[in-house]
Amino acid sequence: MASENAEKVDLSLNTVSDTKPKKEWINLSLRVLSFFATASATLIMALNKQTKTLVVATIGTTPLTITLTAKFLHTPAFIFFVIVNGIVSLYNLVVIAMDILGPHYDYKGLRLGLTAILDVMAMAVAASGDGAATFMAEVGRNGNSHAKWEKICDKFEAYCNRSGVALATSFLGIILLLVVTVMSITKLSKLNRI
C-alpha cells in the first residue's frame, strides 16, 4: 500500500515537470515572435523612403517640376518610433538569451521579477512610440483642416502604405509582449505563493 502511494506521488511530480517546460517554450516562442515583429517594424520604417517628381507650374508649354522625398527622418514621431522599436527589439533579444542561459544563473527568482518589471516598461515605451507614429500617420493620411495641414498620402501612397505596415507590425509586437508580460507576472506570482 505504501509503495503504491509513493508511485502515485512520483507520477504526479512527473506530470508537473512535463508541463512546466512547455510553458517555458510558449513564453520563449512568443518573445521570439515579438522580437521579429518589433525588429521588422524598425527596419520597415527606417528603410521607408519614396521620391516623387511633381509638376508645380507650367510656363508656356514647359512644365516646372520639383522632386520631393518622403522619409522617416522628416518626422520626429517616426524617428521616435524607430528608436523605441529598436530598443524593444534589443531588449527582447537580451531576454531571449537570458531565457536560454538564465536558469543556470537565477538567484532565487530575481531574474523573473526583473524581467516582469522590464517587460512592463518596454511595453509602455513601445506603446508611446506607436501612439506618436499613429497620430502622425493619421495626419499624413487625412490632413487636418483646422490646422491647415495638407495630407501627403495622396502624393506618397507607397510611403504611407509601408508606414502602415510598420505600425501594424509594431502593434502586433506589443500585443505579443503583453501576453508574455502576463505570463511572466503569473509565473512570478506562483513562485511567490510557494
From TrEMBL:
Residues 22-176 form the Casparian strip membrane protein domain. It comes from the Eukaryota. It is a multi-pass membrane protein. The keyword Ribosomal protein does not apply. Its main location: membrane. Keywords: Cell membrane, Membrane, Transmembrane, Transmembrane helix. It is found in: Cell membrane. The chain crosses the membrane at residues 28-47, 54-72, 78-98, 110-129, 165-185. The keyword tRNA-binding does not apply. GO terms for cellular component: plasma membrane. Belongs to the Casparian strip membrane proteins (CASP) family. Homodimer and heterodimers. This is CASP-like protein.
